[in-house]
Amino acid sequence: MTYCLGISLDAGLVMMSDSRTNAGVDHVAQFQKMRVWEQPGERAIILLSAGNLAITQAVVSHLEDKVRLPKAEAAARKKQGTLLTCPGMTVAAQLVGDAVRKVYDRDAERLKQQGSDFVASFLLAGQIKGGPMRLFMVYSAGNFIEASSDTNFLQIGETKYGKPILDRVVNPLTPLPEAVKCALVSVDSTMRSNLSVGCPIDVAVIRTDECRISWRRRYAETDPYWGNLRRQWGDGVKTIFGQLDDPDLSDGK
Amino acid sequence: MTYCLGISLDAGLVMMSDSRTNAGVDHVAQFQKMRVWEQPGERAIILLSAGNLAITQAVVSHLEDKVRLPKAEAAARKKQGTLLTCPGMTVAAQLVGDAVRKVYDRDAERLKQQGSDFVASFLLAGQIKGGPMRLFMVYSAGNFIEASSDTNFLQIGETKYGKPILDRVVNPLTPLPEAVKCALVSVDSTMRSNLSVGCPIDVAVIRTDECRISWRRRYAETDPYWGNLRRQWGDGVKTIFGQLDDPDLSDGK
Fold first, then answer.
1. Which one of the record's GO molecular function terms can you name (chains A, B) (predicted)?
2. How far apart are CA A109 and CA B111, in angstroms?
3. A3-241 maps to which CATH number?
């Protein structure tokens, strides 16, 4: 499994992903699920992926092959361009959706023959100069939805354990450091309750209108800040819980 | 959906269920998911159910019909007995499993024809005089597992949102009032993140060796203790979160 989170704030974007993949408990591996396409000052785009690793890697390969094409070929394709040349974030989401559909056309039937579903989902976010900052979720059908001020965070993978703290804390006015902190608490809760989500945790921030990766950090299990945060949070939750009034069980049934 | 929780402690059992059922968002209803079979001082058995309401109601009907049979017929069946006469909790779990299989034999093929899976799960717990207190999860196949000192709580339905607080707080030595409190915090987190789980919340406690329902309470949305607990917990979580050190986003990428 996987846990990826994107938060869209007035101040910018926070994108987070874990690094564990598993195909059964005896086949657990570490893969980075965060990919970045960046021309600092002009555009910064981040893609997070969940689902079947063969599918998500194939989708990313399609997107990267396009970027790497020689100029002549690229010109012929310039209607949409690539993630490094497309004119806006909606087209970027379409490019990801198109790549998902290419992989579907190649692999879905064979996967079905072997009893596997075509499972993949993506969070795509970023900003291209002159346009707004945007956050999308791209489905395995290649279609997508966008975050809004009412629903300003999107999750893929193992989403439920870490959702309550986001529901309580995050809104569009949340400052970036607090949103990063909330993302780390959210993934901590997920890791405690589900073995299939694991360190290191990649976090990236794109500040509004900077059109570049403003900040990026990989939190290992041994990271002092991350370790301290997890301990403080665990102790704090227990303290608060201990302070809540107990129900009175002596008052009959 | 549904959220049901059973906690097995040295001091006794805590059983909790919500009351919302839905078949699509325009067909939301309220059904109690907690059933009790009790002969105070001799036995107390609680069954919680999740899944397809037609299936879980049919299972309960089978179990109750057995209890209601005239004595002569009952005698003929006394090998296993009923939930009010069976000699131990393992047999009680088998009785529930047998009832599930009867409903499967009657309905599963028809459900499949209509594209529906046979989805149902149960938490069964209690104590019969002379035997130990036990907590089981009965699957839709009619087989079951039992809680242990390592895994002393079991959940069915919408289980993930409310699991982190249980993972942090509950162990076999937890006192009963604290476990009831934890169950209420757990269902609060679930209700905040998932509309398909809703009030009223039924909670029952069986103290070890009392072999009766020691305490039972239905928490409505407007219950003062429950409302206060939810507010205290929400405020406390936000306070603790606010006290955590923010990450330093000025330290480059």
1. peptidase activity
2. 27
3. 3.60.20.10
Give CA–CA dist B198/B3, Å, rounded.
9
Local structure of residue B88 (DSSP, 8 states): S
Buried b (16+ CB within 10 A) or exposed e, A234-243: bebbeebbee
Q: For residue A241, give the H/E element and its range.
A: helix A224-243
Rounded to whole angstroms, the maximal C-alpha distance in chain B is 82
**Pairwise CA distance, residues A137 & B65, whole Å:** 50
Q: Which CATH architecture has domain B3-240?
A: 4-Layer Sandwich (3.60)
B182 in contact with chain A, both atoms CB, cutoff 8 A: yes
A238/B168 CB distance under 8 A: yes
* Structure-token match 């101040």, residue found: A11
| pLDDT value for B66 | 85
B224 in contact with A, Cβ within 8 Å: no
Domain ranges of chain B: 3-240
Give the residue among A211, A209, A207, A227 at the shortest CA–CA distance from A219: A227
pLDDT digits (tens, 9 = 90+) for B5-44: 999 999 999 999 998 877 666 777 778 899 999 999 999 9
Cα B122 to chain centroid distance, Å, stands at: 7
Tell me if B241 sits within 8 A of A170, measured CB to CB.
Answer: no
Give me the tens of pLDDT residue by residue for chain B, a chain 253 residues long. 799 999 999 999 999 999 887 766 677 777 889 999 999 999 999 999 999 989 999 999 999 988 887 776 766 666 778 999 999 999 999 999 999 999 999 999 999 999 999 999 999 999 999 999 999 999 999 999 999 999 999 999 999 999 999 999 999 999 999 999 999 999 999 998 888 888 899 999 999 999 999 999 999 999 999 999 999 999 999 999 999 999 999 865 5
Q: How many helices (H) and strands (E) does chain A have?
A: 6, 12
Structural contact between residues B153 and B6, judged by C-beta atoms closer than 8 angstroms? yes
Give every CB contact of residue A234 below 8 A, 6+ residues apart in sequence.
B168
Q: Is A161 on the interface with B (CB under 8 A)?
A: yes
- Inter-chain touch A232–B244, beta carbons under 8 Å: yes
Window 87-146 of B, Cβ < 8 Å to A:
none
B101 near B58, Cβ under 8 Å? Answer: no
The answer to whether the beta carbons of residues A200 and A19 sit under 8 Å apart is yes
